[in-house]
Specification:
Blueprint lengths: L7 H21 L18 E12 L5 E8 L2 E4 L5 E6 L5 E6 L5 E5 L3 E6 L5 E7 L12 E6 L1
Parallel strand pairs: 1-4, 3-9
Antiparallel strand pairs: 1-2, 4-7, 5-6, 5-8, 8-9
């Protein structure tokens, strides 16, 4: 029977080579995806994008029903920081809106973008309400929620 002798130097060298190979493999794996593009508004970098949407269906009796909504339905923004809110009209002719508890109001028209800057100094939940579709009877309620945190 033949014995195999392993020298400490060979064992240590093998371990270091494996360690370097593993470190090189880890280093070559991307931990973050590089993106391109520049901030177009550096003094106001926080921008929220919403769209108007519509759901339509028929009841069993054949009556057509529809409901309008803001999408996304809930947004979270930081307290005291100026944000740009952009709403693009996809469905519905126009949506006059208010943000409850504030002086912010406007109208979103189909195929157009409505953009305004807003700042909320008090934490809480503010309702973005479409005045045209404010209840079920008016194909709503078309209400979005702005959470200020």
């Amino acid at each position: 029977m033949k014995l195999i002798y392993i020298r400490k130097r060979w064992l240590l060298s093998s371990f270091l080579i494996l360690l370097l190979a593993f470190a090189g493999w880890q280093w070559s794996q991307p931990s973050a995806i590089t993106t391109t593009g520049q901030v177009t508004n550096p003094e106001n970098q926080f921008k929220i994008n919403l769209v108007t949407g519509e759901f339509a269906s028929k009841t069993e009796a054949g009556k057509e029903i529809e409901a309008y909504r803001w999408d996304p339905g809930t947004i979270v923004i930081p307290k005291g920081e100026e944000v740009t809110i952009s709403i693009y009209g996809v469905n519905g002719k126009e949506h006059p809106f208010i943000i409850e508890g504030t002086d912010y109001k406007g109208t979103v028209q189909k195929g157009k973008e409505t953009v305004f800057n807003a700042r909320f100094e008090k934490e809480g939940t503010y309702r973005l309400i479409c005045l045209t579709h404010s209840s079920i009877e008016k194909n709503g309620p078309m209400i979005g929620y702005i959470v200020v945190d």
